[in-house]
Amino acid sequence: FFLMIRRPPRSTQSRSSAASDVYKRQGQYPPVKGGTNIIGLELAGYVVDSNNKEEIGRRVMAIVSGGSYAQFAKVKRDHLIVLPEEIDIESAGAIPEVWLTAYLQIFQLAQITKDQIVLVYAGASGVGTASIQLIKQAGAKSIVTVSSKEKEEYCLKLGADYVINRSSDNIKEKVLEITKGEGVNLILDCVGPANFQINSDMIAVDGKWILYGLLGGAKVQEINMANFIPKRINLIATNLKSRSTEFKTKLINNFCKDVLPSLANGTFKTPIDKSYEVDWVNIQQLRDAHEYMEANINSCLLYTSDAADDLLCVDLGGRR
Q: What is the pLDDT of residues 239-262, one digit of tens each?
């Protein structure tokens, strides 16, 4: 069963996306089979009935396979996350895709344990900032990469144990120095081919390498797999959008039990980098926001409007 989510009059709906929305706008990120070409993988809003009337008290957030930039979005009933009172609907638009992705990778795929060391690429991105906090909660240590001094300070405030500025530091040398040559137990990799070789050099024996993005391109020029067998490297490729309905339902239920309470009580933070006013008349602001993220300046963004009946909020997770 599906429910319709929308922003009711004089209220706010929040929609969010990451680099995938920029790629989709550019025509580089096709929808899943049978899916919509409308941008957007997550949202927060209000449940409405078949007569477009708001169900009182049903503030929700959700992941979708596309279409969250639209005024209405169709969501599986089992995929709705009812918002705790402590979470405002604007901030909620920055939660579902980012936090579910990080939670899936760290706890379900990697099954992280205490005292392990995790390398997080793009530490100031949406998934990166969520990962830093989840890793710390698990009692593990994080090494994150960033592209500026500002992002370095930002990640340290969120709880990162070590930060490597890829603009000035050698990532491989720094990681091996920090780990005393042992390497990291887990790599959360949204870059892909550009760092393929150094990842295999930096990962520890029996390490897990979660590949969830291809910001560094899709093709590896040369592949030397000499490390894979002796190190018993476990390379896991993952994607949330194409997962089955049943898988997402179970993931969401576990997330609501394990993570949502910490978001509600403020233990976990969902930071906002910059706000834009966006409404249906001045939709160019949305493109401006995309271009701001493409410049790789930001960490996380929230775009909002004061235009009463035309409120539109969008959060884009930062890149690197």
A: 998 899 999 999 999 999 999 999
